Amino acid sequence: MSDKKYAPIAVELEKDKRYAWCTCSHSSNQPFCDGSHRAHNATPSLGFSVEEDKKAYLCTCKQTSNPPYCDGSHNQ
Ligand code: FES
């Protein structure tokens, strides 16, 4: 069992910009995809955008029920 602790990462998101949230945990650029899923034959990124500039807390534990946003599941 891993001792690694997960916590959301706060990011400033820009209106209408396309983002790719890492779903597989292999990215070195969390919480965003860096293409590492290809080498690991893992799940691809989740593309998303926002309708206004905003600060958001993006999930890094990949257990959220509301991807890409943290829903507190990392505490369970
Ligand atoms: S980091 Fe909070 S639900 Fe994943």
From TrEMBL:
GO CC terms: cytoplasm
Keywords tagged on the record: 2Fe-2S, Iron, Iron-sulfur, Metal-binding
Gene Ontology MF annotations: 2 iron, 2 sulfur cluster binding; metal ion binding
SMART domains documented for this protein: ZnF_CDGSH
Location of the Iron-binding zinc finger CDGSH type domain: 6-43, 47-76
Protein name: CDGSH iron-sulfur domain-containing protein
Keyword Transmembrane helix carried by entry: no
